[in-house]
Predict the structure.
Amino acid sequence: MAAPISFLSKLFGSKLFKIRRRKKSPEKNPSNPRPRPGHGDRPLKLAEEQRPAKEAPKPEPVDPYLLSLPVDHVIFELWRVCRDQGGWLPRPELSFKTAEPQVFDPKTSMTELTKLLMAVSSSAASRLSAMTPPVLPAPAAPMADTEQGMTEGPQDQEPPPPPDLDAQAMVFVAGDKLSAWLLAYPPSGNGEGVTKGIIMNALGAAGVAFGVDMEVVEGIPAMEAPYFRMHLVARGKAAVPGKDGAVIDLYPRETRKELPVDDMNRVDFTAMGTTQNVEKGAAICHISPPTPGVAGRTVTDKELPTRDGIPAVAPMGRNTALNEDGTSLIATRDGGLEFSGRAFQVNPLLEIAGNVDYSSGSVNFLGDVHIAGDVCSGFTVRAMGNIKVDGVVESSTIEAGGDLILAKGVQGNNQAVIRAHRDIFAKYLENCIVHAKENLHSECIISCEVYSDAGVYVQSGRGAIIGGRVWAGREVDANIVGSKTEVRTTVVLGGLPCESYEKDLLTQEIEEMEKRLEETERQPSSPTKLSRMSKMRMQISVNRLKLNQHQKSLDELQDGLEHRPAGRLTFRVAHPGTLVEIGSSQLKLENETRHSIATLIDGEVKLIT
């Protein structure tokens, strides 16, 4: 049953109810406190800086083969006029993209699109001007009589009919003249559509006379939508340069020097070999001949010159020669093969089955030397190539122009001098002077004077450096440095150790000869005195010249070492008595130290553990 309507409601209607609601509304009543936001209230708006940043829309990838034009470009105006006259036409799409492989790479295509834009703008504007002649005013209407006087009738301007124009073909020739593209515009009025004749005339006017694809030319008129598209109608022939001759090595130019280590971490130096043996007549490398270049031709029928391949230079050194047809480098004798500088050379190999003693005498050989026995005290072995000694080296002098392998080590008795212009591999070194232009590898070094322009590695076997002085240009890496008896062991890092030592030797030799010259001058006159003094003065002059030249080369090499990082000593155990020198800084170990690296930090020698 409906609620009864009160008298006031009948009198005032719904206005009273609205007034009461307006008074009770907290928003309109200032006496009521402002309600606190609750769970159901609307969320507060964040400040602009508190709102999460909107992700910027990702830019669409740019097609390097498509010419993007604005809708107000003249070609779109031409397209709209043609569409209004002849009906539906596809939108203009000017692209150099073809079936793989593409005619242009992306960078070249971008350059060609810039040129195409200028050509299309000019041709489209000219075509649009021909298709839209100026509008002529309509003839004036006869005068009409009105009550106020004579008035002129309305002047309506009627558009003229489109002119009768055949389809037009515009030819675009690429900058390298190796491709020609065609862009066709639709006919106007009762004009003829694109035909093979129109295309060929346009190609002839553009000078295109080579590489025309007649299949494409004949297929364009038969296409459903041939207009406002780029058609590849001609391709030239690129010039192909000849291939240069090449040298195909059959032997490596650098031999790998691997240390054969057994299960006990000991190196078998007798199994090492740095010489590649070749037999007479064996091929060392093949030489492929160059190929002639193939000239190209542009679409305008112009020849593109090219170049022929350059013959390879045969790396022919000592004891090598080319075969009859010049396609291979062969050895002319048996020996050890090595690549020196820019050429292969075959070094003769001298085999000594026994010891170097009074039965054989000292050895001075231009090739490689292999000694199966020992090198006894007082004898000298010099070779331009590599030297390998299977036995023990006693108090003797050995100098190798290449690598030096001492399978059973050296017992020098403070008289042996061991020198190599490349690497030295020795089982052990004891009481001797050692010079290595490159690296030195050994299992044990005891009381030796060692100079190495590169690194000294004493890691296999016991791996100990005990006593003496070791000077390395780059680094020293050893298991043990020093001994428990605190014998003094000096490790010097940096500089050019071998060059500096040779300079000191020359200086010392000059001083000794000057002293002998003074002693000779004090001797009584004799027929041999003048001769001996003349020879001494000559030798002193020669040594001084050598010293000056050596000092110049040393200064040049020192300049190149300024940016080289400081040397370092890496060890597992270093005993007290070990002294580390880097430049003018020193560090003497007072306690046993394990697993550390000594290097130069802020001008001081410090340990990194």
Q: What stands out?
A: Helices lie at 7-12, 15-24, 74-86, 106-131, 196-205, 214-219, 497-522, 527-559. The CA atoms of residues 211 and 235 lie 5 Å apart. Residues 1-33, 37-41 have pLDDT under 50 and may be disordered.
